[in-house]
UniProtKB/TrEMBL annotation:
SUPFAM superfamilies: PLP-dependent transferases (SSF53383). PROSITE patterns: AA_TRANSFER_CLASS_1. It comes from Dioscorea zingiberensis. The keyword Transferase applies. Belongs to the class-I pyridoxal-phosphate-dependent aminotransferase family. One of its GO terms (molecular function) is L-aspartate:2-oxoglutarate aminotransferase activity. This is Bifunctional aspartate aminotransferase and glutamate/aspartate-prephenate aminotransferase.
């Protein structure tokens, strides 16, 4: 058979009845050819095409912003791998190794062949241990069927938001906030409602501001104490005032993120929101092992709450990831066995964190124009550098916000920090002091040297 090749444009000019042509409306034409039979009496038409792929992404996903802390941490890591000596103070990850007793429990689990699936909600033994911990340390009574163990506290929070929020519901989030809270609300088709707080109030939510924002759409209030990114700790008296307001709104639930509960500095004390009168029935208590026990890579957290709410979280998990790692659960069991609040092992780490905090407070207190709220927990310093906004640096440009300031410090000081706009407060930057004291000392010297190139327009 002889054949001739035709372009798409020449094909359009052929006098061929339209109904005899293939439907090419959703296809990309690669080539068109006509072939003549050996007898020379007939022609055949051949069209080679490929369906055009729809490149669209779900509007729900398009509405979500990527995590800036993860992005900056990944950038800093890639720079280090390429030979640039970046000091990384962006990630909220303790520099301590996982305590030996915990690591040994994980290794024993592997040696003993404890490497298979566990029940979706977690093994009975770890859920019993979590119940004991919550009763002894937090004054909260739960049964194992009111606990779901997940692949990190982050998963627990996401599942809680999905379990109770419907399209149009509002999630109330005090700012500064952990970067993931608003995006989790958006993934659930809910609307994040941000309530700004002030450095002068130690970034604590004012009850009257909360009351002014609540309505029939308000479904979930997220509280984090001790706080990421500010290190603020809610005193019991303030939580009681918030509980009085919550009690007036039947639809309103509370998610209490207590992942930093053991990293707290005297005289501050931790209070679980669910322990307040009338709050157990409407509170999700979320905690985990990553921060206090230096177990970030083990990916283990949990949620506790009324059975019907927690069962909904478990249902999501059963179709999402199934249960947490069997090995990590054995390690978590060992962590809970270290004693009240992690015993001496955790206490030693907290003392180191406090020493680092005090060093940074003194060091940055020497920088003119920097405003500081003294952290009472966690391992972050949230510093107000806004007096330097408007400064112009030759070879860099204008410092016009927290993002450009952090880019300036990454470039000039080779220190990776997180801009405050990621946490809902552009006046500040976040420094993680989950790094050794010598590392922090080196970082402060570099930051001060870089900042000496800036003139504070406010102070000038």
């Amino acid at each position: 058979m002889e054949s001739i090749s035709l372009s798409s444009s020449s094909f359009q000019s052929l006098l061929i009845p339209p109904k005899s042509l293939p439907d090419l409306s959703s296809s990309k034409v690669h080539s068109i050819s006509m072939g003549k039979s050996w007898s020379g009496r007939s022609w055949s038409l051949r069209v080679r095409s490929e369906a055009v792929v729809d490149p669209s992404i779900s509007p729900r996903v398009n509405s979500v912003k990527p995590s800036k802390t993860v992005a900056i941490t990944d950038l800093a890591t890639s720079l280090v791998q390429s030979g640039v000596p970046i000091i990384r103070l962006a990630a909220g990850e303790p520099d301590f190794d996982t305590p030996e007793a915990i690591a040994q429990a994980g290794m024993n689990a592997i040696r003993d062949g404890y490497t298979r699936y566990t029940p979706n909600a977690g093994t009975l033994e770890i859920r019993k241990a979590i119940c004991h911990k919550l009763q002894e340390e937090n004054g909260l009574e739960y049964t194992p069927d009111q606990i779901v163990v997940s692949n990190g506290a982050k998963q627990s929070i996401m599942q809680a938001v999905l379990a109770v929020c419907s399209p149009g519901d509002e999630v109330i989030i005090p700012a500064p906030y952990w970067v993931s809270y608003p995006e989790m609300a958006r993934l659930a088709d809910a609307t994040p409602v941000i309530l700004p707080t002030e450095l002068s109030d130690n970034f604590l939510l004012k009850p009257e501001n909360l009351a002014s924002k609540l309505n029939e759409k308000s479904r979930l209030l997220i509280l984090c104490s001790p706080s990421n990114p500010t290190g603020s700790v809610y005193p019991k008296e303030l939580l009681e005032e918030i509980a009085d307001i919550v009690r007036e709104h039947p639809r309103l639930l509370v998610l209490s993120d207590e992942i930093y509960e053991h990293i707290i500095y005297h005289p501050a004390k931790h209070t679980s929101f669910a322990s307040l009168p009338g709050m157990w029935e409407r509170t999700f208590t979320v905690n985990g092992f990553s921060k206090a026990f230096a177990m970030t890579g083990w990916r283990l957290g949990y949620i506790a709450g009324p059975k019907h709410f927690v069962a909904a979280c478990g249902k999501i998990q059963s179709q999402f990831t199934s249960g947490a790692s069997s090995i990590s659960q054995k390690a978590g069991l060992a962590a809970l066995g270290l004693g009240y609040a992690g015993g001496e092992t955790v206490s030693t780490m907290v003392k180191a964190f406090q020493e680092r905090r005090d060093f940074l407070l003194k060091s940055f207190g020497e920088l003119k124009g920097v405003k500081i709220s003294k952290p009472q927990g966690a391992f972050y310093l949230f510093l107000d550098f806004s007096s330097y906004y408007g400064s112009e640096v030759e070879g860099f440009g204008v410092i016009n916000g927290s993002d450009s300031l952090c880019r300036f410090l990454l470039e000039k000081a080779q220190v990776a920090l997180v801009p405050g706009d990621a946490f809902g407060d552009d006046t500040c930057i976040r420094i993680s002091y989950a790094a050794s004291l010598p590392t922090l000392e080196a970082a402060v010297l570099k930051i001060k040297e870089a900042m000496s190139q800036l003139r504070s327009p406010v102070l000038a």
